[in-house]
Amino acid sequence: MKSFSIKGTEWFADDDSLVGLLGEVDVPEGDRRGYNKAEYQGRKVFIKSFVEKGLPGFIRNRVASRGKREYDLGMRLLSMSIPTPKPLGYGVSRMGSYIIQELVEGETFISAYAETRSRAGLLVGLAMLLKTMKFHHVRHNDLHLENILLVDNEFYLVDLHKMRIKHSFTVQDEASNLSHALVGIYGDLNDEERESFFARYGTPKIREVVEREMDRLAARWVRRKKERAFKETSKVLLRGNRLYIAGMEDCAAGSFVDLIKKDRKVRVERYTDHIRKIYRDKRRLERAWRAHVVLAYMGLGVAPKAFYLEMPHGAAQGYIAMEDLKGTGEELDRYLDRRYNSLSENQRRLLEDRLSGYFFMLTRKKIVHKDVKACNVFVPTNGDFMLLDVEDIRFRALDEQALKRMLVQLNTTIPKRVGTRARIRFFVKFTSTMKVDKRAIFSSIVKESLRREIVYEGVDGLVREEW
User: Fold this and answer.
1) Which of 37, 86, 332, 363 lies at a CB distance of 3.0 to 4.6 Å from 102, suitable for a disulfide?
2) 397-441: per-residue pLDDT in tens?
């Protein structure tokens, strides 16, 4: 390996051709990472920087720089026939390091997964990659699906500086690779796809361990996103006293139209281009904003889109500006009151299928609403359902108690004309794959529902009905 110095950085490269390239291109810099694609004499390369800060970073950079580490690990992966962009060299400067690689142009696994109509081939390829990593004792430690590239149907590992190649490979090492890779898509997979994936991987018994680890990772991810909801990040922008969801800075600038709702918890106002939900309790405001931010990171349109948060200041209460759903649909209780009698039997069955499927999707995504009254479920004219009152959303698994509470709330806030058979069909469809005592839960829901009256908001106002 040849060494040379350019602009205060000591470079180590496999051949002299990189000297001219590094003398001409801008070496990336940034707060943590910088990236640059370059072409020199027909050769395409990718340069990544690792910026170190403080004394610990300075020491690490001198003892074992991340650029050199990624170079060495890349060479070892290639010797095992595990595809990764070929390392060409690395550099070390006073407060950072760099790696140079051949530029590999492909798409991330998660992008391909989102675009494909047939996931089976992608899941097989992922299972075989993870199986190969297990065989060679490779623990990646950051194996989210943006760190797997698809190039001509081959799976490439990238971002290797946290990776370890171990002498022995434990169940915990396997679970780490599997859980990091699967956690982002596992909620989308049905039981058949899950079973097939672990069968291809070759160790079906590890599934339970991996699922527990994914629960831990998902909870940690949500906690971190909530902690960052009031800081400037790639998803949240701070502008004066406002926190914007990135890309929404020019939204919600209209003028006041009218008051929609006012009670002891909130005041809801309509503006010409948005809704403002003004919270009397700062804790509810913060809880709602954290939930909006987590949903924005998840990329799920399961609630009205938030534009920005106005922080409380002085005597002014804080509020969240969000999209106005007026004219795009109505709440489930009003929808059923207005339309249910005119729906054909096929249309009613389709509504049951869509609604049960929607709640099942939320369950797989570990999204639970603590107040699932029909007035908090929005039925759009186009698209899927939405949850209102975002401050009541929690990101956790749906346990039996939450399931009972949710179904009692829903059961007692929809019109009586939605008959017993329709309610039973919805319950059966929603809980079909849940590993719970369905008979006991159904009995409990019926008993608790019969203790209450049916109360909902109809097209002509509040309606109370006896069973």
Assistant:
1) 86
2) 999 999 999 999 999 999 999 999 999 999 999 999 888 999 999
H or E stretch covering 197: helix 191-201
**Phi, psi (rounded to 5 degrees) for 400:** -65, -40
Read off the pLDDT band of 40 (50, 70, 90). low
Q: Helix, strand, coil shares of the chain as percentages rounded to 5?
A: 45, 25, 35
What is the spatial distance between Cα 320 and Cα 312, in angstroms, rounded to a whole number? 11
Count of helices and strands (H, E) across the chain? 14, 25
Nearest to 22 by CA among 104, 105, 103, 98: 98
Summarised one tens digit per residue, pLDDT across range 364-401 is 899 999 999 999 999 999 878 999 999 999 999 999 99
What is the set of domains in the chain, with CATH numbers? 2-102 (3.30.200), 107-227 (1.10.510.10), 236-322 (3.30.200), 329-465 (1.10.510.10)
Helix (H) or strand (E) holding 331: strand 329-331
- By the 10 Å C-beta count (0-12 exposed, 13-18 middle, 19+ buried), 117 is classed as exposed
CA torsion through residues 163, 166, 171, 172, sign? negative
**What are the Cα distances from residue 7, in Å, to 18, 59, 91?**
14, 21, 11
| Strands in 209-274 per DSSP E | 236-239, 242-245, 256-262, 266-271
